[in-house]
Amino acid sequence: MNIALPAFLLIIAIAPGYLFLSSFNRKESTTLSPKPFDVFSAQALIYAALLHLGVLTGIYVLGYKIDYTVLLKILTGMELINSDLTLLKGQFQQLGIYHVGVSSLGYGLGKVCQFVRFKTNPYKESRYAYNLPWYYELRGKISAIKKADIIKVACTVQAGDQTYIYYGFLDAFYLTPQGELDRIVLEEAMRRPLVADGEPVSISSGNILLDQTKPTGPFESDELCLNLEDLDESEVQQDIESSHDHRFYQIKGDRLMLKYQDISSLNIEFISFRQ
Fold first, then answer.
1. In Å, how far from its chain's centre is CA 190?
2. 189: how many CB neighbours lie within 10 A of its CB?
3. Are residues 14 and 91 in the same domain?
4. Most buried of 95, 149, 199, 240 (most Cβ within 10 A)?
């Protein structure tokens, strides 16, 4: 018991540091930390020492005196006498409250520091941004200039012998435990065969000719040659929308989930609302 007690006490003492790091760090991978264990433990030890120092200082300022004699005996492996055991038994509840309080402080302080870091470094290009490539890309938080309120996604998916283009608003995304993209969820999803990308689209209103030398759709911009004589804007808009519906097929359902392993290419379109 004299051998195991110092190690047990040391683990309890370092626990607030681990809680602080686990709540402060943000990563896309949920597996073990890529940092060497000794580096992570050293960081936890430093933060735990700072937390204990702050709390003990506050206790001393409030006028409470702390006797470290029994603590030093336990850490050095010295044999405890009956008076020491009696003292520990009488203060067991206070020691438990102290440990719970310091651990809660470490976890809460880590969350606060994480919030402050996100608030002061909101974009992928921020100086102290977290290493979260999928988070920043699929939330439209690249930089102060390149950001999005809504994200539209176009992706190609192989289904049998056909390749389809799926198009819709990005609603959510999920990651694997290794931090890789697992699946995306689209709203108002549409699709069409990729071979239909180069098919001509007829527009009857006015004299509007669609450049058929390039594929059209979300992957390439449509090039329109306009003749403004006798051009009715409402009719042209209606024809464009009908041609868009002709090329794309609406998918019934509220949310479409696509596995990332089935996606061969992914195009992201950022849409921002100007204030």
1. 26
2. 23
3. yes
4. 240
